[in-house]
């Protein structure tokens, strides 16, 4: 574990530009490997600190959202799948405001691109989509980068245990959380 920590520090110090590029690339390919977005953002706080980690996470999230925008426009089967997820989670005719989406982005168990799809449905063009995506991604990037920077103060063993707990809780509570959110949204 100490060797891994030394390796990360050495890459960060000697190859900051390459490490930054790789971090942004991980944000972009994250959906392919089903890596939770909060884990990537927290990793940015651990490796790069608050300011640099937050900026890189925002760039990565915006690139990921931009790619999603073009995929949603070109792949109808993809949007059909997201519509089914939306109906299952939020109901048939539920309209989500930008504040709802921003708060739901903070919930680690909600599919990031499902929320991007809600933004996609509400916007008329790419410029409007990008503005709303940035508005909803900023709080998430700030909060989880701060958590990641705080975690970096832990020993490597405690940090590893913390990440394993987050992944386990995310997996266990995923279905339960969906049901609670659906109940909450239908009661308001």
Automatic annotation (TrEMBL):
For this protein, the parts annotated as crossing the membrane are 32-51, 58-79, 99-120, 154-173
Record GO cellular component, one term:
plasma membrane
State the compartments where it is located: Cell membrane
> How does this protein sit in the membrane?
Multi-pass membrane protein
UniProt KW Transmembrane helix keyword: yes
Q: Which terms are listed as keywords in the entry?
A: Cell membrane, Membrane, Transmembrane, Transmembrane helix
Keyword Metal-binding listed:
no
Spell out the PANTHER family in the cross-references.
GOLGI APPARATUS MEMBRANE PROTEIN TVP38-RELATED
What is the name attached to this protein's record?
TVP38/TMEM64 family membrane protein
The opening ranks of the lineage are: Bacteria, Bacillati, Bacillota, Bacilli, Bacillales
